[in-house]
Design a protein that fits this description.
By secondary structure, this protein is mainly alpha-helical. Helices cover about 75% and strands about 0% of the residues.
């Protein structure tokens, strides 16, 4: 029964994701018909295979698509769409884990300071003349991990990490790092606009290079989170009950925190701070599929991918592009207030 539910829900959401991606490819300032978009994708997949195999006789079967169309589809839209799916997948997955970990529907991926740390690293790099390998994503990634590690050290005493202490430490560190970001913005000078744009969360500078950076991190570590789905279910009952059924609580908490921090760092490093995806998507999906993380975790991740691709498509539909973080906040906050008014936000 469980396996059937997982397959059904994931199949539905995967189909929806493909539909949203197909729609997003044809939407933009430059009009591209569905047929041309599909043929451009076909060429992009087939030509490298043909070239690598040196099967020149297949070349006449390449689809006749304008070079401009292929460039727009493969160099601009598809990297952005795929990166949006990866980031949305990551944020929703980690949001699900954090809500289960803290037994609080208000938890999200930034709760232990990862996003704030990434912001400090990114803004510091933007305002600094120093260059490092991989540039801005690397600075944001390192800042995120340092912040998460710092919160964990502050909250841990005697080999134990109380959830309440971890939450309070996260809030304190976020506040402090927010002050650091504000100071750096005062020193930004000509880089101020770039820094603010990054802090709003965006996908406008997406490249296949960024996809290659984020995708392996998200996919590999997501498998670890799925492996701990049953432990997350037990942790919902409380730590004492988890100990009673043989769960190594402290070890499980360390693994979940470490993996979630790295996934969040990888996502934020390539997209900036995008809010509400990791908060509203897991909670909404929980209302549909229930609290069992064996179902909730993969379905929330896929729903997060659908949500971010769709919102980023909206973000670039107007005459001037809006950072996708603005769209997610504009859509997420009213919806969350609606849930509060209807008393559908409750303790886990």
């Amino acid at each position: 029964m469980l396996r059937r539910r997982v397959i059904v829900w994931n199949s539905v959401l995967a189909t929806l994701l493909l539909g949203v991606i197909a729609t997003s490819v044809v939407i933009g300032p430059a009009e591209i018909g569905p047929r041309d978009a599909l043929l451009a994708i076909g060429n992009g997949v087939a030509v490298p295979v043909v070239a690598s195999a040196e099967l020149r006789w297949i070349q006449p079967f390449a689809f006749d698509v304008p070079e401009t169309t292929e460039t727009i589809v493969w160099s601009i839209r598809l990297p952005r769409i795929v990166l949006g799916a990866v980031v949305g997948f990551a944020l929703a997955a980690v949001g699900t884990v954090m809500q289960g970990f803290f037994r609080n529907p208000m938890a999200d991926p930034s709760i232990i300071g990862v996003s704030a740390g990434a912001a400090v690293g990114a803004v510091a790099y933007i305002v600094s003349p120093v260059t490092i390998p991989l540039g801005l994503p690397a600075a944001a990634f390192v800042g995120a991990l340092l912040a998460a590690f710092g919160v964990y050290l502050i909250a841990t005493e005697g080999g134990r990490t109380p959830v309440a202490t971890l939450l309070l430490a996260g809030i304190a560190v976020q506040t402090f790092l927010g002050a650091v970001v504000s100071y750096l913005l005062l020193q930004a000078g000509d880089s101020l606009e770039e820094a603010i744009f990054w802090l709003m969360g965006h996908l406008h500078a997406s490249t296949w290079g960024k996809v290659r950076l984020a995708l392996p991190i998200v996919v590999v570590l997501f498998v670890f989170l799925v492996a701990y789905a049953r432990d997350l279910n037990v942790l919902l009952l409380g730590e004492e009950d988890a100990y009673a059924v043989g769960i190594e609580v402290e070890r499980t908490k360390r693994v979940l925190l470490a993996v979630s921090s790295v996934i969040t760092a990888g996502a934020v490093a390539v997209s900036g701070v995008i809010g509400f995806v990791g908060l509203i998507v897991p909670h909404t999906v929980r209302l549909l599929v229930g609290p069992d993380h064996r179902i909730l975790l993969p379905t929330s991740a896929l729903a997060g991918a659908v949500f971010l691709v769709a919102t980023d498509t909206v973000a670039r539909m107007g005459p001037g592009e809006v950072p996708v973080g603005v769209i997610t906040a504009a859509l997420g906050a009213p919806f969350f207030l609606y849930l509060l008014r209807n008393r559908e936000v409750h303790s886990l």
